[in-house]
Amino acid sequence: MKFKIETKKLALVSVFAALLVIISRLPGIPIMGGAGKIEFTVILAPIVGVVLGPWLGGLTVLLGDFIAWLIPSTTFFGLLLLPCGAIAAIVSGTLARKDKAYNWKIAVAILGVLNTLWYLTPPGREVFFYPFLHWAAFILVLFFRKRIADFIQSDIKQKLTLGIILCCFAGIMANHMAGNLIFIASVGWFIPLKTIKDAVKALGFFWMKSGLPSPEDFPSGLGALFILMLPISVVERISMTIIATLLGSGIVFALQRSGLIKIGEK
Fold it and tell me: Do 107 and 170 meet the contact criterion of CB atoms below 8 Å apart?
C-alpha cells in the first residue's frame, strides 16, 4: 500500500510540474518597467500545495517553475522570482492540513512576516495601506485557523469550496507580497545583481536576458508606482483567486472521489 501511495504522489508531481511548464508558456501579465511578466502559474501553485501538501507541493512548484525558467527566453529577474510559487504552495498546503508539524500556524507566520517586511521598504513607508488584501488574508487565516483544513477534508462540496477559497487566496497573496519584496530589492540592488546575472550567464545560460528593473524606469519613485498599480493588483488577485477556486475545487473533488488522494493523509 505504501508503494502505491508513493507512486500516486510521484505521478501527481510529474503531472503538476508538467502543467506548470505548459502554463508558463502562456503570454502572462507584463510587469511595470519591463521586468518580465506575471505568469498564470500563480493560479496553479496554491492548488498544488493543497493536493500534495506544503513541502512536496512546494518542491513540485519549484521544480516546474525552474524547468520552465530553463526554457529560452528567460531572465535573471525570473530566476529571482522562483521562490514565490513555492511559498504559495507551502501556505495553502499547511492550511489544508492539521498535522502537528505543519498546519495553519506556519501559513499565518509566513503571511505575517511577508506583510511586516513591506513596511521596512521605502514604498512600504510611503504607501502603508497597500497590503490591505494581504492583511485580509492574514486575518482570515487567523480567524478560521484549523477549520480551513476541516473544510478541505469535508465531503460537503460547499465546505470544500470555502476551504479552497481560503487556501488559494492566502497562497496567492503570499506569492504576491513575496514578488513585491523581490521586485523592490532588485531595484535597490541593481548594480550588484547585474554582476551576479553576468556570472550566471557565463555558466552557459547564454540566452538569458537581464529583466532587472532599473531605478531610472521609475522617475516618480516606487511609492507612486505601487499606488498606480493598486487597483490593478486588487482586480488581478481577486480574479486569480476566483479562477483558482473554480479549478481547484474541481481538481480536489475529482481526485478525492477517484481515490487518488485523500487530503491530510500521511
Answer: yes
C-alpha cell, 119? 513596511
Q: Which residues, at least 6 apart from 13, have a Cβ–Cβ distance to it below 8 Å?
A: 52, 56, 59, 60, 63
Name the DSSP letter for residue 216: G
Q: CA angle, 25 as apex, 21 and 26 as ends, to 5°?
A: 125
Tens place of pLDDT per residue across the chain (266 aa): 444 457 778 888 999 999 999 988 877 665 554 445 567 889 999 999 999 999 999 999 999 999 988 887 777 778 888 999 999 999 999 999 988 778 899 999 999 999 999 999 988 988 999 999 999 999 999 999 999 999 998 888 899 999 999 999 999 999 999 999 998 888 766 556 666 566 666 666 666 666 666 655 554 567 788 888 899 889 999 999 999 999 999 999 888 887 777 776 65
Helix (H) or strand (E) holding 206: none
Give the Cα separation of 38 and 77 in Å (integer): 12
Written as one letter, the residue type at 158 is Q
